[in-house]
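Possible race condition, two jobs.
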Amino acid sequence: MATIKDIAEKANVSIATVSRVLNYDGTLSVTDETRKRIFEVAELLSYKRRADRKAAPSKFAIVHWYTEKEELEDLYYMSIRFGIETRCQQLETQWVKYLYDDLEEVKQEKIQGIIAVGKFSEAQVRTMAGITDNIVIVDHSSEDESFDSVTIDFEKAIKKVMNYFVEKGHTSIGYIGGRESYKDQSGEIEDLREKYVLAFGLSRNIVDERFIYRGTFTVNDGYQLMKKAITEHGEELPTAFFMGNDLIAIGAIRALHEENIAVPERVNVIGLNDISVSKYIYPTLSTLKVHTEMMGEVAVDLLMERVVGRKVGKKVFISTELIKRESSF
């Protein structure tokens, strides 16, 4: 930490002057130029002292809430993992992979931090905090602000999709999403996608709760739930559907095809995530792109900052992008 003496020497003023300026002494008579120089030197020395730290060789644990089989059913988390591993390779950082159930084994590793990928309860976060103070959560955020997180702003993201539908003239919009629970069975996780679809849609009278369907975030549930919506609503089926993820959208489009309901002529479909297969299905899927690999990369960078001394928690929101393809006008 830079001392008052260091600042005084760099700013070419007395130690007493620096002390009084930094303490906002109102009785001190000093020019704005001198005051500015002292503050700038103080900031510069503080910044340089942080930047000059060298990261020691690091070893991180990547803790997944998904098994490898579950990851294959949801490529979103696979993409995040690729981003983490690629960034670790670039930084020549070692990593070990574990499931949450393996935390006892993680305790045996000599690690400098944990990247927790997925949705973890507060109790689970506290358990990880018993292993290391350096924790970054990806795709979720702890109520404890001392831990870092990388996620997306679902409220802004959903508004992009809903505003697009409104601009295209849709007055009846549906949503097919999923429900998830914490792995420790401590409770159900609130689906922020559904929350903000309802908040936006009900305020503008373009979403009816009858058009909201919930299952799991899988192709099969997208298929089954769209079949159910078609049966229940017939000609009153909404003209647009936002899907909780791309896998649900893929299943829903298959159901629409089987019922000879044209996409996008009769029903527009927009997914979420932009997984790699989205551009290869028919029709190609419009989707709200989440930069998942960047989420993984940023998580590693945040953890490196922690290792070299940052103590203040950071919450990073990664922006989203509406990708317009053939499944919507």
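Job #2 (started ~2 s after job #1):
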Amino acid sequence: MTRIESRQNATLKHLQRLRREKKYRKTCGEMLCEGGKMLEEALRSGADVRNVLVRADAPLPDGARQAEARGARLFDAPEALFSLASDVETPQDVVFSCACPHWGTDALTAADRVLLLEGLQDPGNLGTILRTAEAFALGAVVLCEGCADPFSPKVVRATMGAVFRMPCVFLPLTEAACRLRENGLPVYATALHEDSEPLCSVPLSRAAVIIGSEGRGVSPQALALADRHVVIPMAGRAESLNAGVAAAIVIYEMTKGGSGK
């Protein structure tokens, strides 16, 4: 194990930049993760862990030596330096970097149930959606225009490990819709629209559903692209739902299959 004793340490600077800079994460193909449980999830999922940094006065996490045995570099640092790499106010005892998972568009070929996200910018919502999609074994999640970075520390933390396993594809909305239709999947858009049908009334066992941004919902482009418009029926006074909650309901209905017409 190597001790980090300076703010100028190259590995510490690398971890800091992964924490702060989307462009740097993309260039390096790495992301920053935090916590012993997340490290165990990464190792269990076969992630390529590159650097592990532990707090010098803390017990060595169970996964640290396992990561080192797989080729990761192991470091420790006093709390004042360790906290510089952490993304939370109260840091856990370990932060680590690993290769960002890469899912090509081939992930859409065999997918029966797909969620398309358009303009979804809240990291907590995106992380929750990926976690829910993985829990219900969705085929893929497609990130279209304007979405948050799925490899930012806040999103990664909210996924609770799903980021390592949930196929997440980057495609423009128009191209994604075309590819999915080629695979025989209809494309639905969630919207408070005059012709919207209740979500539970459309066939969802093989389908793709578009979820829009937190503030504006789906775009006119998405409405025009969709085969049908769907809505989550609500009996209360609220006009809309949080995007993460709406996506969770859609995912659950897709798992049920929908009754169809």
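The CA atoms of residues 203 and 260 lie 4 Å apart.
Logs attached separately.
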